[in-house]
Amino acid sequence: MTLYIECFGIILASVKLRNKSKKLKRNLRVSSTCKILKFYLLLAAITAVLSGCFDFVEEIKLHDNGSGAVKYKLNLSKSKTKIGGIMLMDSIRGFPVPSKEKIQKKLSEMKSLLNGQEGISNVKITENWSEYIFQLTMDFEHVNKLNLALKKTLAKEEKAKKYVYDAYSYSESKFSRNYIAQDYNEFSQWKTDVSTVLEGANLILIHRFDEPIVSKENAKYMLSKNSKSVMFRASFLDLKEKKVTLQNTVSLK
Amino acid sequence: MKYFLSLCLLGGTIFSLAQDLSNHVPTLSKSVFVIDAASIHEKCQKANLETFEFFKELKENTDKYLTGSGVDNALVPMLVANSHDFGISTSDFSYLFTRDRDSINYTAFIFKISNEEKVNNLIKTMVLDEEGIELGIGEGFEFAYNDKMIIGWNSRMVAFFDYRIPYNYGTWEAVEETTTEDYYENYEDRYEALEKEEKEKKASSILVALEEIFNPNPKHTISENAHFKEVVNKSADIIFFVDGFGNMNVMNDVFGTRGTVDGMLSIFADNYFYCHINMNDNDITAAYTYHVSDVFKDMMMAANKGKFNKNLFKYIDGQNLIGYLGMAVDSEAYYEMVMDMYSKVMSSMPRYGEVVSSGMDIYNILLDEDEVFDFIKGDALFAVTNIKQFDVTYTSYEYDDDFNEHEITKTKQELLPEYVFLASIGNEKLRGKIIELLEKSELLIQKEGYYLVLDPYNSYRKDKENGMLHYVAIENDVLIVTNDVELVSTYRESGLPKNRLMSKERRSHLKKNNYVGYWDSGNTFSKMTDEMKGMGQDFFSIMEEANAVIENATINGLSSEGNLFSADLKLKMKGEEKLAITHLLELAESIYKMQVK
Q1: What is the number of structural domains in chain B?
Q2: pTM beyond cutoff 0.80
Q3: ipTM exceeding 0.90, yes/no
Q4: Three-class SS string for B2-24?
Q5: Disulfide: which of A48, B70, B205, B499 matches B104 by Cβ 3.0-4.6 Å?
């Protein structure tokens, strides 16, 4: 959930209301036409509002010395027709809808911030605006530096920073994926039930290692055939309702 | 005696006109609402407004208006709807208007008093027990104000204001004053002196606004505006009037004071707009009228001569029609009008005006108008013909035994609007070239007699037909763009079968008008039930209520008479046993109850 907030939150939730620029008076016909067109756009969007259907994937490749590469992927393809409709609106049910340009600017800022962090390199962001798939990849010298980089980057985002903690730790051939259950009180102020938003949304974690895994603490993590990876798959709703936890420690050979 | 009576009658009429509050509305008001309080009050009484919860709440919290909602948001509806209780005269019109002065911008609501005691009670409730209220006395009126609102009153009328002092008011004075600035021993003294000065400035701005209304120069009121007089001759529950010339100042933001305005004056001169809004028994109507300058009248007339090609109607499925929007113009005349308007506006730009204007002239010379206007005929219709389940493909990922990721395409069903965009086109040679170009660019893929629109993002994928599919076809000189494959494959040549076409009423609407709009509430909400439920019980309840009260909405236009161009919007309510206003109030009540929850 934290990572969902980190990435998706940065993209959508933290964008502030757009300043309304002064608009020149338009003539009667143009003005009415625009209003009606907006109505049809609303109609298209309203058939689709805010129910979830997205996947968030965290994939980490960790080497013996604690260095590695990480990939965060937000896949909104399942909701692409809905998002396409929503992106045409200024706001929907009280939520401001950021423009594509604003999202791109935000992503580019995030890339610059991460690039400037010590121990982080090769930061890449890929955007697929047709399928609404966004991916962030980077290399890190050590998981501790990855923790720090995420913390520093998200410290700039008022809404996201409170959800940040040291998600990863690695020492003596033991890798831990930490998790602090989130407080959902803030979301209770939303006009839409947060459960509706999270319905059909899945979280997938894949952690790969150079050496075979000897043991893992959380049974929800599946072991790969070659014993060098674990995979966690759960719905965000289960995470919200605390039916599952991301907390896990794997011991390597 | 007969002559004497006639004279008295004439004198009485003149006297009553002179007494109308329009002679307290500044002529430079940006927009003016004329409210027939008697009519609205009567309709609200018939609808038993008093019994609605939201109205009870509004009435009980009168004292919160000074610090709470704005004048036009809540105060005016509440006062007008219940005018008797607050001592508002219903035999006179009330006025709501906005005015931007250098020193103060405000929205004011003024009304005549029928019962002084009731009005005094209302003012007392609003003013007493409020912190930060300043009281004052002007020439022939009293007033009270805080940071947001002003109330001015005398024995004859009351004025409520929302106001804002422009941030740059007095900036230049401050610059000039810096040379003679007083010396202060410490920062607190200086801050205190500045605060006092600001307060005085605010008080004088407020007084100026009040003076303008309570003691106006008779020649500078809207009652002297010939256009306004014409507009209020026709009765309506609410009349909205905007004097276009007054709004020339919006151009100042763009062009500054250095712009040459001759060209623009020819557009804006004699340019005004009004709207008559009526709450009838079974519908609510808004009749818009736009008066254009002589320069644009002929151009508008020429542009307005377009008609919808009947071939377009063959492709609109009327069985589950949600709505449509369309316009039919003479494309060449319309283009000339728009270019002329832009040319006049752009040439007024300081420094770059001439360059832009010359650029537009060169563009016009290069444009092969015969080709273009033979291609674009000028009529176009966009219709949403259903809301139904569509197959939608999307990208997902599968993982093998070692959790390696593999991209796959999945299909799911989604409730989406079915639409069709139709436009008459000609010039077979030109359109052939355009289609060929689009095919070469892989934006269109040829199918059997029609084309599939390809998303450029998908051109590198194995499965190019990904996502929501859209189709293009050209048949009978009609361009068809739709997401209904059946329309372009099965019915492209013949058009839809007769039993699926729009009703006679709808076709007649399209034949008689050249600017059209239509929305069917029942078809919309009944199709969306499950989605609405997904958005929460509250939202569903409101939509259910909306579905129960609104039958349809239509836009008809444009008709013209001289320099006047008119269109009207009609919101038809369901069930004749209830008044349209009762339906509206019930809808407001549902929304209120949802918010209270």
Answers
A1: 2
A2: no
A3: no
A4: HHHHHHHHHHHHHHHHHHCHHHH
A5: B205
